Amino acid sequence: MAGASSMKxxxxxxxxxxRRGGWKGRVVSVLKKxxxxxxxxxxxxxxxxxxxxxxxxxxxxxxxxxxxxxQGSIVEPGSVLMRVDVVGEG
Amino acid sequence: MLLEKVRIRVSVNDRYRVVGNLVSSFNIATVCEGALCxxxxxxxxxxxxxxxxxxxxCTRGCRFCYVRRGRPQPLDPREPLRVAEAVRILGLxxxxxxxxxxxxxxxxxxxxYAETIKAIKRLNPGVIVEVxxxxxxxxxxxxxxxxxxxxxxxxxxxxxxxxxxxxxxDWRAGYDQSLKVLKIVKELNPxxxxxxxxxxxxxxxFEEVVEAMMDLRSVGVDILVLSQYLRPSLKQLxxxxxxxxxxxxxxEEIAYKLGFSYxxxxxxxxxxxxxxxxxIKAIKRLKGS
Lengths: 90, 289
What we know:
The complex is a heterodimer. By secondary structure, chain A is mainly β. Chain A has strands at about 5-10, 25-30, 35-40, 45-50, 55, 60-65, 75, 80-85. In chain A, strands 1-8-6-3 form a 4-stranded antiparallel beta sheet, with no helix packed on it. Chain B has helices at about 15-25, 30-35, 40-45, 80-90, 110-125, 140-150, 165-170, 175-190, 205-220, 245-260, 275-289, and strands at about 5-10, 30, 50-55, 55-60, 70, 95-100, 130, 155, 195-200, 225-230, 260-265. In chain B, the strands form 2 sheets. Chain B has an 8-stranded mixed beta sheet, with helices on both faces. A two-stranded parallel sheet of chain B has the order 4-5. Chain B is globular and about 45 Å long.
């Protein structure tokens, strides 16, 4: 239905290194807060692992409703980072 | 000392998923995953992958490497065909193959390498094959088996400068042994392109890097890869220093003066990174000279 909205989660992608899923990272910056608009492909969170800093993009267009991590949070593949009210899907 | 980490934009596209699903369903290990390589998004996202044959458990314990160490799985005789089939499905015209070390096997896995190269070539006519091989403990016999299978490029890494080799690499590896491997390969087939990588940032000094580059040239290495060591986890060696882009540039210029046909010098370069491009440019230069 055009214009409908639904809640979706932005997670640390499970597919990063698909068969080496045991890594953990530390959130170094949270780039969106509740109420912010977000576009697909826009960076939302930066996670530091030993080898690099991973910049995680939003897979959706919408409005951030909830932020579940803060600077210093420890995350792993599949961790929910934010909840987004996704606009115009479905 | 605070070290500025490299920032990687994570993007998982459809091609990335195709590669991931294929290697997983074919049960083929990849060094992209095994080494937690930060280039995985760029490479898989453009349909490029480096297969890691003979399992994902290495008999050696180099102190920079994230690949699991332990008792490896038995060799799978069907693996060469699966790799060849995966190459066909992905439509690759340039294939990079590496492996874990297999000190448990009498031939170090040379025969399995040869079978894999032959299977790839049989199923994918015209394909160019690059192998990044272990040292096979310097065995000329093992190296002959690999070279005679007909890869276009053979890479073997010295990884670091001479002085730091005992600290960085497994005790069974050796700086001189690795140079010997590269020398034998070139002597067995002088038309073959050889390649080696040096990781920077373990605490080596500039002169030592230049000396290592000269040593590689003295055994006829054609392609040099210079890259920044990045610590995969707290279990590996810490990074002693991050090199600047200017320093990479300076080393690259010296490397060309020393006579390498092609040099890949970048913090995130890895042995198989943009391998096709490096090979094509090296060949052009070799033929032109």
